[in-house]
Amino acid sequence: MKGKTIRIFLVEGTPNSILTAEIINWTGKVIVAPRSQLPELATRMEAKRTGVYILAGEDPDNPLREKIYIGESDNVFKRLTEHNKDENKDFWTRTALIISKDENLTKSHIRYLESKLIRLAQQARRGTINNSTAPEIPPLPESDTADMDFFLSQVQMLLPVLGFSFTLAAPKPIFTNEFIDNDNDKIEFQTISPVFYMKASGAEAKAQEIDGEFIVLRGSTARKEGVKSLSKRSWEIRQQLIKEGKLINSQDEAYLVFQEDISFTSPSAAADTISGASYNGRTAWKIIDTNKTYKEWQETAIEKAENY
């Protein structure tokens, strides 16, 4: 994969204030600001251009997900001031504005981007969408459609870097237990791990690490009853998965079963959810059909990289 250069500028020189982000040779620009700095944002003329905006914050009904609202306007900042008076936007803590540096985005263009972003968010299912409707994708000339799809691809690349991950597609497991070498003995470092398995208190699970996310695979089981010492965070994760129907009762009443592939932030977070207790996931997970732990597998990969 070819690398990309992203230029991030901290407007006030501090990490928690307004920042701008650009990709080299791209006409777009993203401005990120805390809601608390709307007065400072008001002084930036580019914030009053035609563009798409994202309002994001913690979902009060689901501590594991962020809540987002996606909109468009001929004057983005003016629309933000209207949202600031809306009690239904109390969740909102961070803002991202998506504009064009050459001011060539038209009303049709931004409606196209807004509609596409909402659909991507719905498909990814990583956040709670606050929009009440998903507007239809407006028709554009063929050349404009191609331009806007490229523009959108750059936005999708930037947003996760800036802490907005709601458009990221869920990783798809690729079943391999091989560490790949090519004919020239050059190691091909991949972002997909072997398949791991774990057994705990009768529960059995399989998982794979993909692009930094630890994915527990559909059909894995989890212990229904957790111990009292289970952390509050792990308890909330289990309860939310049950609430969303992603963990349901299995044929054995002592266990739950995963209805779909579920992403966790670490092997230990996954292990805690499965076992209902506190586990060191780095040693609890082992490569399937072997006794090699996640920890040993990772150390081997690091050693190969150091010796390359």
Would you spell out the secondary-structure blueprint of this structure?
Blueprint: E1 6-10, E2 19-23, E3 28-34, H1 38-41, E4 51-59, E5 62-73, H2 76-83, E6 94-100, H3 107-124, E7 127-129, H4 142-161, E8 192-200, E9 203-210, E10 213-216, E11 221-223, H5 232-243, E12 247-249, E13 255-258, E14 262-264, H6 267-275, H7 281-284, E15 286-287, H8 294-307
Parallel strand pairs: 5-7
Antiparallel strand pairs: 1-2, 2-3, 3-6, 4-5, 4-6, 8-9, 8-15, 9-10, 10-14, 11-13, 12-13
Helix pairs in contact: 3-4
What series of H and E elements makes up the topology? EEEHEEHEHEHEEEEHEEEHHEH
Give me the secondary-structure category: alpha+beta
**What percent of the residues sit in helical stretches (DSSP H or I)?**
25-40%
What distance separates the N and C termini? 20 Å
Instruction: Tell how many strands the DSSP assignment holds.
Output: 15
Mean pLDDT: 89
Main sheet attributes: strand count, strand direction, barrel closure: 7 strands, mixed
| Global shape | globular
Q: State Rg.
A: 22 Å
Task: Outline the low-pLDDT stretches.
Answer: 177-189
Q: How are the strands ordered across the major sheet?
A: 1-2-3-6-4-5-7
User: Count of helices?
Assistant: 8
User: How much of the polypeptide forms β-strand, as a percent range?
Assistant: 25-35%
Could you please describe the fold and organization of this structure?
This protein is globular. It has a 7-stranded mixed sheet with strand order 1-2-3-6-4-5-7. Strands 14-10-9-8-15 form a 5-stranded antiparallel sheet. Helix 3 packs across helix 4. About 4% of the residues have low confidence. It is built from 8 helices and 15 strands. It is an alpha+beta fold. It starts with 5 loop residues before the first strand and ends with a helix. A hairpin with a 2-residue loop joins strand 8 and strand 9.
